[in-house]
Amino acid sequence: EADIYQTPRYLVIGTGKKITLECSQTMGHDKMYWYQQDPGMELHLIHYSYGVNSTEKGDLSSESTVSRIRTEHFPLTLESARPSHTSQYLCASSQSWEQETQYFGPGTRLLVL
Amino acid sequence: AQTVTQSQPEMSVQEAETVTLSCTYDTSENNYYLFWYKQPPSRQMILVIRQEAYKQQNATENRFSVNFQKAAKSFSLKISDSQLGDTAMYFCAFMKPTGNQFYFGTGTSLTVIP
After folding, report:
1. What DSSP letter does each residue of B40-53 carry, written as one string?
2. Beta bridge partners of A65
3. pLDDT at residue A77 in the model
4. For residue B77, what are the β-bridge partners?
5. Which of A28, A2, A22 is closest to A89 using CA atoms?
6. Which of A42, A54, A88 is the best substitution to test chain B (most B C-beta atoms within 10 A)?
7. Pick from A41, A43, A100: CB nearest B33
8. Regarding beta strands B108-113 and B10-14, do their DSSP bridges make them parallel or antiparallel, or are they unpaired?
9. DSSP classification of residue B59
10. B89, B102, B109: residue with CB nearest A102
11. Residue B21 in 3-state DSSP?
12. What is the pLDDT along chain B (114 residues), one digit of tens a residue?
């Protein structure tokens, strides 16, 4: 398995709370990604990063924000969680010398009550 | 824009049999990467196989092989000798070498029947 980690794995939280989903990788990959995925459905890219201090929004509009202060760390933050944010969030990383193959973390399942 | 289409939302196969999952894509690029990912129930997404468009030879990884038809923009996955552990969602994905994003298909849910 790839060396990419996500915490927490499961989170149940009330509406209006601020949450941060953690993602870290030990492979030295420059590129990192956040996807949102409803159960059994396709992945939607919400954020990506080419490297430190680089962040971009993906195709799916999201109220979340990300930061990339260190190569290995790419946290995602929701300032005020809502039930519509209930989903699974997958983090991934890649590097060009591996044909851009993305390695995925185990995901965080978020439930907002 | 790049799009990836998986026209089979669900498939099933008898254990030890062979199954083929289809994937088509649309792009104006000449060079790109194609991938098949597997996502078992409640488990991590993992890479099954990848193909570089400039390579004519079809990629093979043990029981998994692809049929890459560049002109037809088709990239099907063949699973031979299906095993119960192959039960999963399978996603086809496309990426340009200089691109920023993966483009995923909607997935095919494969069930291997004992």
Report:
1. -TTS--EEEEEEET
2. A77
3. 96
4. B21, B66
5. A22
6. A42
7. A100
8. parallel
9. P
10. B102
11. strand
12. 668 999 999 999 999 999 999 999 998 888 899 999 999 987 889 999 999 998 889 999 999 999 999 999 999 999 999 999 999 999 999 987 766 678 899 999 999 999
Predicted pLDDT of residue B42: 78
Judge whether A5 and A27 are in contact, CB under 8 Å: no
Contact B99 A42 (CB under 8 A): no
Q: Which residues of B touch A41 (CB under 8 A)?
A: 106-107
In this prediction, residue A64 has a pLDDT band, given cuts at 50, 70 and 90, of very high
**Distance of alpha carbon A42 from alpha carbon B6, whole angstroms:** 11
Alpha-carbon gap: A9 to the closest alpha carbon of chain B (Å): 11
User: B85 burial class (0-12, 13-18, 19+ CB within 10 angstroms)?
Assistant: exposed
